[in-house]
Amino acid sequence: MGTQGSTMFAPLRQGLPPVDPVSVSSSVSCALTGAYESVRGARQFTEAALGRWELGECFDDVALVVSELVTNALRHALPDSGPAAPEPAVRLHLMHWTSRLVCAVRDPSGTSPVAGGTSADDPDCSAESGRGLYLVEAFSDSWGWHPLAGTLRGKVVWAMFHLPATARRNALAV
After folding, report:
1. Which tens digits make up the pLDDT trace of 109-129?
2. Distance in angstroms (rounded) separating the CA atoms of residues 153 and 169
3. Spatial separation of the C-alpha atoms in residues 107 and 114, rounded to whole Å
4. Contact 148, 156 (CB under 8 A)
5. CA 104 and chain centroid, separation
6. Contact criterion met (CB below 8 Å) for 17 and 142
7. CA distances from 64 to 5, 98, 109 (A)
8. What stretches in the chain show pLDDT beneath 70?
9. Is 157 exposed, middle or buried (CB count within 10 Å of its CB: 0-12, 13-18, 19+)?
10. What is the pLDDT at residue 134?
11. According to the model, what pLDDT value does residue 1 have?
């Protein structure tokens, strides 16, 4: 899918630091079920995409961020009950530019993502949950979110990675 392939990409591009649309190398997406097993599937999907793009050296950081974004969407953005939605509840999008990689997770909630209370001065910093967005911030170069536009409901939470020089050379060689 190119830069004009989805209504989701237009507002996402608006929320990101400027990128040249001509430099888009590739993008892929996958639908994820509302089950926590989807986190594993998202990691596998990410590994396959990074392998095709010769970005395997970035896998550990990207997979951690993808895992956190998908987990947050499953934990905080899905309704507890109700009829099945006509579209998948959560979608993972990976977009590869020559110098950047963006991971974006779309979910049906319009609620702003909020980092849990696990800062260094918080007495409960040993908690096992609530650190997801802190990890996203620590392992990516930037992240953000925006509400979806048009007929889609919900939001997109994204994280961007600047690619190392070796990955840039590989992208230019393709």
Report:
1. 888 887 765 444 554 554 445
2. 38
3. 15
4. yes
5. 3
6. yes
7. 27, 21, 22
8. 1-24, 80-88, 116-130, 166-174
9. buried
10. 92
11. 28
Task: State the amino acid at position 123 in one-letter form.
Answer: P
| 133, two tokens | 């967005």
Q: Residue 146: helix, strand or coil by DSSP?
A: strand
Kindly report the backbone phi and psi dihedral angles of residue 53, in degrees, each rounded to the nearest multiple of 5, phi listed first. -90, 5
Task: Name the one residue in this structure whose structure tokens are 């509840």.
Answer: 89
pTM: 0.76
DSSP 8-state secondary structure symbol assigned to residue 1: -
Q: What letter would DSSP give residue 106? A: E
As a whole number of angstroms, the distance between CA 48 and CA 131 comes to: 26
What strand order describes the sheet that includes 142-147?
Answer: 24-32, 90-97, 100-107, 155-162, 142-147
pLDDT of residue 5: 35
Q: What does each C-alpha distance from 125 to 46, 68, 130 come to in angstroms? A: 29, 17, 9
> Pick from 98, 95, 1: which is nearest to 46 by CA?
95
Instruction: State residue 9's pLDDT score.
Output: 46
- For residues 73 and 157, the answer to whether their CB atoms sit within 8 Å is yes
- Cα 112 to Cα 66: distance, rounded to the nearest angstrom: 18
Residue 138 CA to chain centroid, in angstroms? 14
- What local confidence, expressed as pLDDT, does residue 55 receive? 94
